[in-house]
Amino acid sequence: MSFFSKISVFLCLCSQFLHSQSSEIQFLSGKDAEHTKEWDFWINSGRRSGSWSKINVPSQWEQQGFGSYNYGRDYVTYGRNFKFHDETGLYKHKFTVPNSWKGKTINIVFEGSMTDTEVKVNGKLAGEIHQGAFYEFKYDISDKLIFGKENILEVKVSKMSADKSVNNAERLADYWILGGIFRPVYLEANSKEHISSTAIDAKADGTFRSNISLKEINSANNLKVELFDAKNNLVGESQIKIGKGDTLKQIQFSIQNPKLWTAETPNLYKARFSVNKNKKSIFQTEEKFGFRTIEIRKGDGIFVNGTKIKMKGINRHVWWPETGRAVTENIDLMDVQLIKEMNMNAVRCSHYPPNKSFLKICDSLGLYVLDELAGWQKKYSTELGKKLVKEMVTRDANHPSIIFWSNGNEGGHNFDLDAEFAKFDLSNRPVIHAHHKPGNAFNGIDCNHYEDYYSTKKILEGENIYIPTEFLHAQDDGGGGTSLADYWELHWNSKKGAGGFLWAFADEGLVRTDFNNQIDVNAINAPDGVVGPHREKEGSFYAIREIYSPVKIDLKTLPDDFNGTIPVENRYHFTNINECRFDWKLVKFKTPFSSESGFEIIQKGKAESPNIKPTEKGNINLNLPPNWKESEGLLLTATDSFGKEIYTWSWKLKSNDEISKQFSKSLIKENTVSVIENDSLFILKTDEKEFSIGKKDGLLKSVIVDKKSKKMTFRNGPVFVNGKMELSSIKSFAQGQNQNIEATFKNGNKIIWKLKSNGILELNYEYSLSGDYQFAGVSFDYPENYVINAKWLGKGPYHVWKNRLQGQTYNVWQNLKNSTRTGQSPWIYPEFKGYFDDVSWMQLDTAEGKITVGTKEEKMFVRLFDFYGIYGAEGYPKLPSGNISFLDAIPPLGTVLAFNINDKTESLGLESEPNHLNGTFKRTLYFYFGLPDLGDENKQFTMPKENILTD
Questions:
Q1: Contact criterion met (CB below 8 Å) for 413 and 433
Q2: pTM for the complete prediction?
Q3: What is the 3-state secondary structure (H, E, C) of 417-449?
Q4: Contact, 336 vs 365, CB < 8 A?
Q5: How many C-beta neighbours within 10 Å does residue 489 have?
Q6: For FRET with 214, which of 129, 243, 910, 933 sits at 20 to 30 Å CA-CA?
C-alpha cells in the first residue's frame, strides 16, 4: 500500500473513531458523490420537471438530468436582459431514529446546499431558511422526531437566492452555477450535556489554548483536555471545573518541545476533550491540530514558526466533471497529491470553503491553505455575511493547514466582516483581501492579481508584502508554468516577495447531461487549469514541478571537465538537504530503428546527501564509476523524506555529432551515388533512392525511396523562416563518393545538399540574422494526415515554449499522433504538435514509411505541424512557414484571460522576451527515408511484385 493510500485509510479510521467518541452519526444521504442514496425529487422547471421521480443525494441536480445549465458569466455573455435559470427542487426522504436516541440532542446537519434551503421534519420547520451554498449548517430537531417510527424529511432548495447579495457573491461568478444538495446530510446525536465546538490555538512554543463551547451543562462538574502525539502517547493534560449553565470555557497549558506543524513537516497532535461528572466521562470529542505560529511582519514577510516562508501555490475549485461540486474524499486526496507533486506548498480555496476532507488531507500531507469566504466580485450583506463567517470559521478553525482567512475575491470584500473571523478563531489568523485593483492592500499584504513581471518588481519595491492570490492565468497553454521561472526568482530573491497562487489547478469542464455527456468548458471561460477536468497533466504541470523544486539544480549541460559534482541550492524553508535521497542512473538510449522507446540502465548508484541547510547552497558528489563516460545519459533523482520523488534531472553524455556517426555506422549497405539534371531539377540518385532539388530555389521537390518509384511527400524545404529567398547561384559537384548541390542566396544564406553512399541525404545550411525574432531556422512541408507517430531522442515528452523549457527530460520518447488543443476535449496529453526541445534525432512513422532526421549540432528545436498556445479570434503566437521546422530559436508564449490576450510577452520577464539574435547560424541535418536494408538473410517474406492499393 502506498504512503498516500495509508494516509487515506488513516484519515477514514480517525474520522470513524472521532464520531464514535463524540457523536452518533446517521447518514440520511450518501457519504459522498460516489456513495449516494436515492430520495424522492420534484423540480419546477427545466428538464424532467413537473413530476416526482428519484434523485441521488448528494449531487448537483443538473448532473442527474434535471433543470438547466448556466455558467456564472452568462450575465456578461448575454447582457442586461439575461436571467439565470431559477429552479426550485423539492426533496423528500423517509427515515427512522432509534429509540436509544431518546433524551439526546439531535441535529440535522447539511454540509452544503445550493442555495436557499428550507428544511421540514414531519411537517414542521426545522428553523429559518439557510442562505449561502458553501457552508455547513444544522438544526436541532430533537422535539420534531418520532423515535422508533418513520419520519419524513422535506427539503426545498432554490437555485437562486431570495437574498440578492447571495446571488451577487456566489452566482455572478466565473464558474458553473449549479443547484442541489451537493454535500452530505446526516443526523448527529449527542448527550444532553455536550461540547458543541472547540477553537484551538497551539503555538510553536508549546502553548495550548482552547475555547470550548458547551451545551446544556447541568450536572457535569469537570472539563478535561488531554493531548496525544502521533504515536498516541499522552504528552500533556489539564482540567477545569464547570458548573450548571456554563456555555464557554477556556483551557490553557503548555507542553515541552512539541513537533511543529509546517507544510514540510505536517506533525499532528490529537486533543481529547472530556465532559465529566464526578470523574466519569459523559461526553468526549477529539480534534486533530498542530503546533505552529503564524506572523505577518509588516514590510518583511510571512513567518511560520519564526521562519520566513514563500508560497508556491495554486487556486483550486472543488470539481469533478461528472458530479460538479459534489466530490469524494478520494478526489480531495488526489488533488492534494497532485499539488504536492508539482512541489507546491500552498493552495487557495477559490472561491468558497472546500469539503472538510480536503482540509484534513492538507493537515496530514502538508499544504498551507487560504480558506476563502465566497464573494467572487460582489460581497455578501453584513447581516448574512456574519452568519456565514461564523459557520465557516467554526467548522474550520482547528485545521493547522489554514494560515489565512480570505474575505472574498476581487472586490467581493465586505469590510464590516473583517473583524468577525477572530470572534470564532482563537488563534486570530490574519485576514487578507484577494483583490484585483491596486491600492487595496490589507493587513500589510498586497494580493493584487495578474501583474506582469515589471509591475510585480515595482510592487516588491514598495512598503507591503506582495503575495498575488492569482497570477499567470493558465487559459489554453499560456500562463501556469509559462514564464513562471522569472516570477519565482523575483519573489524568492525579494525581501517582501511572498510567492503567490497560480490560476488555476483544473480545467472546469462539466459533463453536459443535456448534450450526450460531452465535456463543456464554456468556450474561453473555463479551460484555465494546469490539469484537465479528469486531472490530465499539461506541460505546465511538469514545468511547475521543476521550477518549484525545493532541491534546485540549474546545471543545463555538463561541462567538459565534469567530475560528478553538481551545484545545488536548498529552497526548502525547514528541511536540510541531507534528509533527501539522491539516486543516479547511467543509461543507453534506444536507437531510431529499435522497436522500443526509452533507455537501458547500464549502472545505478546512490549519492551521499550533502549537509545543506535551508536557503543555503552546496554540492552533490555523485561518486560515478570511472567508466561513466561510456554511457549515453545521466539521470539524477531526488526523493524527499516521505519517499516521494521531488524531481529527476537528466543530461546527455554524447554529442549530437557522435550520435550522428553512430547512426551512419548502422547503415551497412553502400550504393553508387550519381546526379542527373533536366531543365528544372537536379536529381541525386543511388541504386534505389532519388531526391529532386529545384534549380530555381534549391529546395527539395520530391523523394523516391525504392526501385518501384515509391514516393514520400516530404518536400518544399529548406525554407528559411525569416527573410526572402532570392537565389544567387546553384551548382552540383562531386566530393569523393558523394554528390553535392550548393545553392547560395542574395542575402548570403547558403544550402548544400549531399547524398551519401549509405543513403543518407545530408543538408548543410547557414543564415545570418541581426535583431529580434520570434523564431529562426528552416521549414519543410509534409501532409499531417499521413503521420502515425513520432519518436525522438531529446527533451520530452511535452512540447515547449521559449519561456517554458522546464519540466522535460532526455529520453527516447514516442507520441502517437493526436490533434489535442490544450485545455479542450479530448485532453489527450502530451500534445503531438508543438515545438520540441533539444532534439538529437526524430523519426516520423507515416503512411508512406519512416522519415528519420537528425542534427550534428546541439540544441535543435523541432516544430511539428500547426498549433497555437493561445486561441482567440486568431491563434498566437504566429507560426513559421511550412509545417515541419528545424529551428535554432522558438517563440515565447503570452497569457490570456477570457478575451484579453497578452501577446506582448516581453512584459512577462526576461525569458519571455523575443529572441535577440546577431550572427551567422550553421546547422547540418541528416535525413534517411525508409528502413535500412538488413540483407536478404533477414527477410521474412517476398515482396509482392504489385500492390493494388498503391501501384
A1: yes
A2: 0.94
A3: HHHHHHHHCCCCCCEEEECCCCCCCECCEECCC
A4: yes
A5: 15
A6: 129
CA 213 remoteness from chain centre: 40
CA 613 – CA 935 distance, rounded (Å): 61
Residue 397 has pLDDT above 60, yes or no: yes
Name which of 501, 532, 626 is nearest 823 in CA terms.
532
- Phi and psi at residue 478, to the nearest 5°: -85, 175
| Dist CA 711 CA 317 (whole Å) | 53
Give the separation between CA 319 and CA 781, rounded to whole angstroms: 42
Phi-psi region at 520: left, alpha or beta (left = phi > 0; alpha = psi -120 to 50): beta
* 76: Cβ contacts below 8 Å, ≥ 6 apart: none
Which residue matches cell numbers 489568523? 429
The answer to whether the CB of 543 falls within 8 A of the CB of 481 is yes
Q: What is the mean pLDDT of the chain?
A: 94
Q: Which residue has the cell 513537516?
A: 265
Closest CA to 637 of 809, 793, 840: 809
19 or 23: whose pLDDT is higher? 23
Q: Is 912 exposed, middle or buried (0-12, 13-18, 19+ CB in 10 A)?
A: buried
908: left (phi over 0), alpha (psi -120 to 50) or beta: alpha
Query: pLDDT tens, 493-547?
Result: 999 999 999 999 999 999 999 999 999 999 999 999 999 999 999 999 999 999 9
Of 44, 152, 154, the C-alpha closest to 89 is 44
Q: For residue 277, give the amino acid letter.
A: K
Which secondary structure element, helix H or strand E, spans residue 661, and what is its range?
Answer: helix 656-665
Q: Comparing C-alpha atoms, which of 840, 912, 835, 882 is closest to residue 716?
A: 882
DSSP-assigned beta bridge partners for residue 752:
742, 764
Return all residues near 736 (Cβ < 8 A) that are at least 6 apart: none
pLDDT exceeds cutoff 60 at 404: yes
Per-residue confidence (pLDDT) for residue 8, from 0 to 100? 47
Give the other-Cβ count within 10 Å of 847's Cβ: 12
Sequence-distant contacts of 862-865: CB under 8 A, at least 24 apart: 862/792, 862/794, 862/835, 862/836, 862/886, 862/887, 863/775, 863/779, 863/834, 863/835, 863/836, 863/887, 863/890, 864/790, 864/799, 864/832, 864/833, 864/834, 864/836, 865/784, 865/787, 865/832, 865/833
Burial readout 195-209 (b: 16 or more C-beta within 10 A, e: otherwise): bbbbbbbbbbebebb
DSSP state of 933: P
Could you give the CA distance from residue 47 to residue 64 in angstroms, rounded to a whole number?
Answer: 10
Helix (H, G, I), strand (E, B) or coil at 759: coil
Q: Measure Cα distances from 269 to 9, 23, 551 in Å.
A: 18, 20, 29
Residue 324: beta bridge partners? 320
Length of the chain: 951
Q: Is the pLDDT of residue 211 over 70?
A: yes
Cell numbers standing for residue 736: 569523393
User: Quick one: which H or E segment has residue 547?
Assistant: helix 539-547
How far apart CA 253 and CA 238 sit, in angstroms, is 7
Helices (H), ranges, 126-236 = 164-166
What local confidence, expressed as pLDDT, does residue 398 receive?
A: 98
**Angle ∠(284,288,291) on CA atoms, nearest 5:** 125
The phi, psi pair for 678, rounded to 5°, reads: -130, -165
Under 8 Å CB-to-CB from 176, ≥6 apart: which residues? 69, 70, 71, 72, 324, 508, 510, 522, 526
In the structure, what pLDDT confidence band is assigned to residue 937 with cuts at 50, 70 and 90?
low
Q: What cell does 917 get?
A: 539574435
Q: How far apart are CA 52 and CA 91, in angstroms?
A: 9
